[in-house]
Design goal:
The structure holds two protein chains of two kinds. By secondary structure, chain A is an all-alpha fold. Chain A is 75% helix and 2% strand. The model of chain A has no long low-confidence stretch (mean pLDDT 92). By secondary structure, chain B is an all-alpha fold. Chain B has one domain: Orthogonal Bundle (Helix Hairpins). The longest helix of chain B is centred in the C-terminal third of the chain and has 31 residues. Classes of the chains: A mainly alpha, B mainly alpha.
């Protein structure tokens, strides 16, 4: 038993509630939010790996079937959870820091939503219970909608409602799939369900089992923003405040990997599962980058690029070999950091120019050289240029698809990376290098220092992971070895 | 008593189908949201039906009950717990959706999704 494990969920949840309740004390709220945000990355680093059984109910033996089962919700904490929760903690800290320094009067409910989202994705990563995962998936959807609706950008309410309606159809469909699994196995614990499936206690060719895969898969597509939900996902990024969008995309990546890992443990016996994951991932890669090419609003462009990058993660997991899954998870970690850097960087440009249309921007390199250089490096990392972190994970993915006997997928992955590079270079040239349009006013407007600080921290992590990828790859591959 | 089980499952399926139809095809946002509630309740009903035991007893073990008889006859309590949580989440989602609809109704003066939730990028271009 490890008592620190549930604290990773309880601390942001309780802190959010307290902040929301006592937000009229502005200074105290600011200090409290800052302290909690600092604690978030520290708790996973201080915690030991292990399991936490809620209520102390450890697995027990069923006397009739002689099979161990889990009577209570179980949290599992390994290196994978540690690195992802730690990264989400760092990102939440940076986002809260940007928010606290940007406004004199802070909104308690907005801070609550930021912490609620963090608690929800943390629980989704930790839990070994598919219904518990569903509950936090719903809570996460509410937090995401709140973050979008709270922004001051036009049409944010419309986008929030659209996302909510789609989510309210996707979530019960996913719950129906979970209900089918419950009907087949009598349990909602993923370890118990996987044991039943892999040991012949469930007929894997039965229509009910296949239907449960289809329904949960549909929920996963919605959670991940893979096609056909790619447009709405990029839409909510563009309607949130830039620092909020940085956090929202990390929530998407975490919910994507937590659901797909649960599905992988249950449905990896079905070859169709891997085919489906690879198919939708490739579709996301192609659609994401092609739609990004046509955008003039740079927030939407990054949103579509982020969807394309999600395809790389799904590709790694769909290929199904230990090396490919490790590559996919490493790519997920890189995407969280790189996309957050891009959202914050472009947010700084919005702050300085009040403009999001690339056609109306230009010559910003002379005015904001620090932000420009950091954005350039972030964009190169996303495109997979060495020696940055994106290069390492994409190289692993190309090697993995080659070793699986799919050279065509490798070629496609390289082509999508090149297209990402083209999109980014085109946007960078338009915004930073070409002469400044006469009607663009940039003088006198400065970029918030907190944003530059946040970008600096993320950039250091990108470069470190690019030069020393083994820091995380070894731990992730050990985790992958455990689930296969 | 098998017909009870079949009736429950049939009703659940009917609720889900009606809900999906109105959520996808009906233009009025309130009717859409009612449809979404139908889907949620249909799924909840299905999960409740999983715990149903024909001629069963309430899953609370009382003094003097034979554990083997209780295990064979009691309803399965796990789905009931899950549904309780699901209802709470559904209610919160519903509240947030209706709150957003209130704001948008004040802005647009209509409940039509074709007006309210039109492609925002086109709306922006139109405004420019």
């Amino acid at each position: 038993m490890n008592e620190l494990i549930p604290l990773m969920v309880i601390v942001p949840l309780m802190a959010g509630l307290l902040i929301s309740a006592f937000s009229k004390f502005n200074k105290a709220t600011k200090i409290f939010a800052f302290v909690v945000a600092i604690c978030l990355p520290i708790i996973p680093l201080a915690s030991n790996y292990g399991l936490h059984y809620f209520g102390g109910y450890e697995p027990i033996m069923d006397n009739v079937t002689n099979v161990m089962f889990h009577p209570a919700i179980t949290y599992s904490f390994t290196f994978l959870q540690q690195i992802f929760i730690g990264m989400i903690g760092i990102l939440t800290f940076l986002v809260v820091f940007i928010y606290l320094t940007k406004y004199k009067e802070v909104s308690g409910p907005y801070l609550f939503l930021l912490f609620l989202g963090t608690a929800a994705v943390t629980a989704m990563l930790l839990t070994d219970d598919i219904f518990h995962m569903f509950v936090f998936f719903e809570i996460l959807a509410l937090a995401q909608v709140g973050i979008v609706a709270a922004s001051s950008i036009d049409y944010s309410y419309e986008m929030a409602l659209k996302y909510m309606i789609l989510g309210s159809i996707g979530s019960p469909i996913m719950l129906l799939g979970i209900g089918f699994l419950l009907a087949l196995t009598g349990s909602v614990n993923v370890t118990d369900i996987a044991y039943a499936v892999h040991n012949g206690l469930v007929n894997i060719t039965s229509p009910v089992f296949l239907l449960s895969l289809g329904l949960i898969f549909f929920g996963w597509l919605y959670a991940s923003g893979l096609p056909p939900f790619h447009t709405i996902k990029s839409g909510i990024y563009s309607k949130a405040e830039p620092h909020g969008a940085a956090l929202l995309q990390s929530f998407t990546v975490i919910s994507m990997i937590s659901i797909v890992l649960i599905m992988f443990r249950i449905y990896s016996v079905l070859p169709i599962f891997e085919v489906l994951v690879v198919f939708f991932s490739i579709l996301a890669m192609i659609l994401g980058v092609s739609l990004a090419l046509t955008q003039t609003d740079f927030r939407r462009m990054i949103g579509f690029l982020a969807v394309g990058e999600l395809g790389f993660i799904g590709l790694g997991i769909g290929l199904g070999t230990p090396y490919a899954i490790t590559a996919g998870l490493f790519q997920a970690l890189n995407e969280i950091i790189i996309t957050a850097l891009l959202f914050i960087g472009f947010g700084a440009i919005v702050n300085a120019t009040n403009e999001v249309d690339t056609r109306k921007l230009g010559g910003l390199l002379a005015y904001h050289p620090k932000v420009s250089i950091m954005l350039l490096i972030g964009g190169l990392a996303m495109a997979g240029v060495p020696p940055l972190s994106g290069f390492q994970s994409k190289l692993m993915l190309v090697q993995a698809s080659l070793s699986c006997g799919y050279p065509e997928i490798s070629i496609l992955a390289i082509m999508v990376s090149i297209a990402t590079f083209v999109v980014f270079v085109k946007t960078f040239y338009t915004m930073f290098l070409r002469p400044k349009p006469n009607d663009l006013e940039v003088e006198g407007k400065d970029v918030p220092r907190a944003m530059v600080f946040a970008m600096g921290i993320l950039l250091i992590i990108i470069v470190l992971l690019g030069i020393f990828p083994d820091i995380v790859i070894k731990g992730i591959s050990t985790f992958v070895g455990g689930i296969l | 008593m098998a017909y009870v089980h079949i009736t429950i499952l049939f009703t659940a399926a009917l609720l889900i189908i009606i809900g999906l139809y109105s959520a996808i095809f009906i233009d009025n946002i309130i009717k859409k949201i009612i449809g979404i509630s139908f889907i949620e309740e249909g799924v909840n009903l299905f999960i409740v039906a999983l715990g149903y035991a024909p001629d069963g007893v309430v899953p609370i073990i009382m003094p003097g009950m034979d554990p083997a008889w209780f295990a064979a006859n009691a309803a399965y309590p796990l789905p009931f717990g899950l549904v309780l949580t699901s209802i709470v989440i559904g209610a919160s989602t519903l509240a947030v959706m209706l709150a957003l609809v209130m704001v948008l109704y004040r802005r647009y003066g209509t409940l039509s999704t074709k007006v309210m939730l039109a492609d925002t990028s086109k709306q922006e271009e139109y405004n420019e």
